[in-house]
Write a structure and sequence with these properties.
The protein is mainly α. 52% of the residues lie in helices and 9% in strands. It is globular and about 55 Å long.
Length: 210
């Protein structure tokens, strides 16, 4: 999938700036320096191309906003519990943890004829800042100087849902369950992330290995 990285960056920054949250400019500056807008969203799955991470973040934001808008029609109270700005902040920044984990490499892949050939791609390293996934995103954003609400931090921390929970840790399970019950934003961002990866970013080859 070909991505217009510059268009993604412009929309990403425009959405973030629309919140008028103090510190947004510093976050964007740090993301630029760290290579966020050139990074892929994965090494071998969804949007594993340059600019894929920004595109995935936008897809997650768009999906999360649609989920929120639909749910507000069913339960108007949600419009007071969850703000549009919080959805934008948490969904656009949920995966900044991936900014420094991918590096370009050459892999062996089968072509359409079933023959192995060299193909440019990405590999993963966790040596730069091995702080986990969602929790790393929260810390990186805080270090950039952006003040986050509890709901925003928890939505970013638990955006993977059960996939981000250590099932061998009772504490992890209880924390995730409590966050989901206390803050609707957690479930909304999680839904947006899941819908983005499973539906908005699917391609014809996704079913080949099933």
């Amino acid at each position: 999938m070909k991505i217009d990285a510059q268009a993604c960056k412009e929309e990403f920054c425009e959405l973030l700036c629309s919140t008028e949250r103090p510190g947004i400019d510093d976050v964007i500056s740090d993301l630029e320096q760290q290579g966020f807008f050139e990074a892929p969203a994965s090494a071998g799955h969804h949007l594993n191309v340059a600019g894929g991470l920004a595109q995935h973040s936008l897809n997650t934001c768009h999906a999360a906003l649609k989920v929120w808008e639909g749910l507000c029609g069913l339960d108007p109270v949600l419009e007071k519990e969850v703000s549009r700005d919080s959805i934008i902040i948490a969904s656009l920044l949920h995966d900044v943890c991936k900014t420094d984990i991918y590096y370009r490499s050459v892999k062996k892949r089968k072509n359409s004829l079933g023959q192995w050939e060299d193909s440019e791609g990405y590999k993963v390293t966790y040596r730069n800042f091995p702080m986990g996934h969602g929790e790393k995103s929260v810390i990186m954003v805080l270090l950039s100087g952006l003040e986050l609400s509890d709901a925003e931090m928890l939505a970013m921390r638990w955006h993977m849902g059960a996939w981000g929970v250590n099932q061998n840790s009772l504490e992890d399970c209880k924390n995730y369950d409590a966050a989901r019950k206390l803050y609707p934003l957690v479930a909304i961002v999680q839904a947006g992330d899941s819908l983005a990866a499973a539906l908005l970013e699917r391609n014809a080859g996704d079913t080949d290995d099933i």
